[in-house]
């Protein structure tokens, strides 16, 4: 019987154990990934071309602003943003991260 928070599977004499605990680092990485996905979907819905460079102004729940700000360079690279600016005046949208973004062609 595995310890709580672990998943164990066996097949043909081989076993694998996974630690299923969500650490703050994993949660932060997941939030950053969700921000990238959100902006990529917004790029598509706003009609940007795949190669278009953009400027992004964004806002979200204060609890995750630091995580997103810390990953700004990575996020910018992923979404082709020449500018990635936190703008607290933008109202939050109704989504999982309460993130909102305004995209402009650079």
The backbone outline, from C-alpha atoms, is elongated
Number of strands: 5
Q: Assign the CATH class.
A: Alpha Beta
- Tell me the fraction of residues in β-strands, as a range: 25-35%
* H/E series: EEHEHHEE
- Residue stretches low in confidence (pLDDT < 50, at least 5 long) are none
CATH topology: hypothetical protein PF0899 fold
* Biggest β-sheet: strands ordered side by side in the sheet: 4-3-5
Q: C-alpha Rg, in Å?
A: 18 Å
- Average pLDDT confidence is 92
Pfam family, one: DUF5915
Q: What would you say about this model in short?
A:
Pfam families: DUF5915. The chain is of the alpha+beta class and 106 residues long.
Q: What would you say this structure looks like, in words?
A:
The longest helix is centred in the N-terminal third of the chain and has 22 residues. The model has no long low-confidence stretch (mean pLDDT about 90). The chain is built from three helices and five strands, in the order ββαβααββ. It has about 110 residues and is α+β, with helices and mostly antiparallel strands. The chain has a single domain, classed as hypothetical protein PF0899 fold, CATH 3.30.2320. It holds the Pfam family DUF5915.
Descriptors for this entry?
106 residues, 3-stranded mixed beta sheet, 37% helix, 5 strands, 28% strand, two-stranded antiparallel sheet, alpha+beta, hypothetical protein PF0899 fold
